[in-house]
Each structure stands twice: as C-alpha cells, then as structure tokens.
Amino acid sequence: MTDLQSWVAPTYDGLADLLASAPAETWDAPSLCEKWQVRHVVAHVTMPARLTPEHFGAEMAAAGGDFTVLSDTVAARDASLPLADQLDALRSPLLHAWQPPGGAAGALNHAVIHSLDVTVALDRPTVAPGEAVVAVLDQLTAANGALFGVDLTGVRLEAADTGWSWGSGDAVRADSGLLVALLSGRTLPDGRALPRG
C-alpha cells in the first residue's frame, strides 16, 4: 500500500505551481469554501508551516477552543501575507510532513480537499495525484458521508475519469475531484451539491 503522506507534497507543490503561474488577481477569486477567497484557503492550509505547536495552542486558547473560529481568524489575518511567502509555505517541508490527529489520512484529506476548493472554483485541473484523489474518495465513502454531514442514502457515486464507484441508487456522475468536493459538503460552481444529513 502506498504511504498516504507521500501524496501530500506533490499536491501542495502542484497548487503552488498553479498559483505561481496565475495572475495575481487569482488570489482574490472565490473558492469553494464559503466566504473564503483563494488566498484564505492557502493561508488556512499552510498554518502548519507558520505556527509552532505552542503558537497553535495559543491561537486555540484565544479562539475559546473552537477550531472553526481559529481557522477563520488565522485565514483572515494571514491571507494578507505576501504572495511569495504563501507560495513558500505551500512548498514547505514542514507542511509536507505535518499530520493532524487523523495521521497521514487526515493530512492527505486536508491537502486534497482544500486544493480542490481552489482548482474546482477556478475551473483548473486537479493538482493532486489521481491515486490520492481516489484514496480520499475511499476514505470519505467509508465514513458514509458523516465526516462532512452529507446524506448518501440512495446515492451511487460514479467517477467519470476512473473506474471508481460506490453505493447504489440515483447515480451522481462526475470526475473524481468533483466527487471529493461534493462529499466534502461543497456546492459546485454549477450548483450541484449532495443533500445534508
């Protein structure tokens, strides 16, 4: 079995490469994360490259122990960092090696899902390796949609770009990356979304 952590670095490097070659105004484009521009998503995912465990603990205490508050606060603040610093953080070995409480699986989910928050919103190709996207699909469906509160009752998911499928019922067919975004509770630019549980 492939080490899930090994797909994290190429995902973040791919996102950095995409953004480094994009016009500066791309950073102000909306992402799939509600109320977040591309720059907020990057500021969020690169927290491990900037915050020591002690600093993170202090931020969490200031947020009253609420990770959502912490995320919004740090994203709003650090989104204004110079773009070169943001790109360096995406390429940071610290970020590439970081693991949340969920271990390598959680690190890969974080990298793939948030990279898709950017690429899907910008209508750009997925930057994560294809095998990584399928691994995340497997993780999200193994949890039966519970990780992001989507209701998969009577739903069959079919990846149009691979042979991957899951479930039975009404077919939802899209490329693998779009399926990950849907399973993550996102609404696609065309308005598609999975029902909430």
Quick summary of this structure?
This protein has 197 residues and is mainly alpha-helical. The protein has helices at residues 8-20, 38-45, 47-50, 53-62, 67-78, 83-90, 93-97, 103-122, 130-142, 176-183, and strands at 155-159, 165-167, 170-174.
Please describe what this structure looks like.
It holds the Pfam family MDMPI_N. GO terms for molecular function: metal ion binding. InterPro entries: DinB/YfiT-like, Maleyloyr_isom, MDMPI_metal-binding. This is Mycothiol-dependent maleylpyruvate isomerase metal-binding domain-containing protein. It comes from Geodermatophilus obscurus (strain ATCC 25078 / DSM 43160 / JCM 3152 / CCUG 61914 / KCC A-0152 / KCTC 9177 / NBRC 13315 / NRRL B-3577 / G-20). With 197 residues, the chain is mainly α. The protein has two domains: 128 residues; 69 residues, no CATH class. It is 51% helix and 7% strand. The protein contains ten helices and three strands, in the order H-H-H-H-H-H-H-H-H-E-E-E-H. It has a three-stranded mixed β-sheet. Strand 1 and strand 2 form a beta hairpin. Helix 1 runs antiparallel to helix 6. The two termini are 32 Å apart. 37% of the residues are buried.
